[in-house]
TrEMBL record:
It is a peripheral membrane protein. This is Iron-enterobactin transporter ATP-binding protein. CDD domains: ABC_Iron-Siderophores_B12_Hemin (cd03214). InterPro entries: AAA+_ATPase, ABC_transporter-like_ATP-bd, ABC_transporter-like_CS, P-loop_NTPase, Siderophore_ABC-ATPase. One of its GO terms (molecular function) is ATP binding. SUPFAM superfamilies: P-loop containing nucleoside triphosphate hydrolases. Gene3D superfamilies: P-loop containing nucleotide triphosphate hydrolases. Its main location: membrane. The keyword Repeat does not apply. Residues 1-20 are annotated as: Disordered. It comes from Streptomyces gelaticus.
Length: 284
């Protein structure tokens, strides 16, 4: 894709929602095969911060994220986006307001980085509005923000795991939304690359975006989040700032985990130290 890149990534101004939230679930119930995974859940995503959903396997974290993006239709309740029931919005209009990075996405074989990121502009295309230099500028800005501009002509399937995650985030940015939902963006990454991707997410938040993530690593979740939603068995067990939410008692209740919670020596969040059966220092 040869084009002159000139303009900035578009952003959608935040509008009023439920209690200041642009995105919220009201009494949402979701199930598979007759089994309820989420039952009557209420949650509101605070604007302008990083919210991370944590909880044990099978508790409904990814189901909640997919429901918030309308990939799953709730059996009961509703999801509200900018004050409107998301079920009544056109798919194109939803895509203009929120971007989703699903878990372990796969690109078509041989597709280049630039072509993949350009697909983020599809919600803005129509018979009356075809590809323009403005779209090319948005794509370049997205590639630049995620540090992968020099990879634009490379096939996506030739990249490392960390590079691919940056490219997928670039595609979400190219949609021109300021509401990003990321389902386990550090899956299959080693710790160094996971930190690299989460630092990028933090940069995007600092530029004014609202981010919702699902993470399994509890210490990375507390380190990179302003707001935690702790789930258990399809319900919200606790939510709030990590300093207010993470306690030894909550970790035991939510995960069945014995742990000490201490001050992070390099940050302003709590640090979780798991306690197993072995390799534990015993007091004399």
């Amino acid at each position: 894709m040869a084009a002159q890149f000139t303009t900035e990534v578009e952003t959608v101004p935040e509008t009023g929602g439920e209690g200041g939230a642009r995105l919220a679930a009201r009494g949402v119930t979701v199930g598979y095969g007759g089994r309820k995974v989420i039952d009557g859940l209420d949650v509101a995503i605070p604007p302008g911060v990083i919210t991370t959903i944590i909880g044990p396997n099978g508790c409904g974290k990814s189901t909640l994220l997919r429901t918030l993006t309308r990939l799953l239709k709730p059996a009961g309740g509703s999801v509200v986006l900018d004050g409107e029931d998301i079920a009544g919005l056109r798919t194109r209009d939803v895509a203009k307001k929120l971007g989703l990075l699903p878990q372990a996405p796969v690109a078509p074989e041989g597709l280049t980085v630039a072509d993949l990121v350009a697909r983020g502009r599809h919600p803005h295309q129509s018979w009356l509005r075809q590809w323009s230099s403005d779209d090319a500028g948005v794509v370049e800005r997205a590639l630049t923000m995620t540090g992968v501009l020099e990879l634009a002509d490379r096939p996506v399937d030739s990249l490392s795991g960390g590079q691919r995650q940056r490219v997928w985030i670039s595609m979400a940015l190219a949609q021109g939304t300021d509401l990003l939902l990321l389902d386990e963006p550090t899956t299959y990454l080693d710790l160094a690359h996971a930190i690299d991707v989460l630092d990028l997410v933090d940069d995007l938040h600092e530029s004014g975006r609202t981010v919702v993530m699902v993470l399994h690593d509890l210490n990375l979740a507390t380190r990179y989040s302003d707001h935690l939603i702790v789930m258990r068995a399809g319900s919200v067990l606790a939510q709030g700032h990590p300093r207010d939410v993470i306690t030894a008692e909550l970790l035991h209740e939510a995960f069945g985990l014995r742990a000490a919670v201490i001050d992070d020596p390099v940050g302003d969040r709590p640090l979780i130290v798991p306690v197993g059966r072995t390799h534990v220092r015993l007091d004399p």
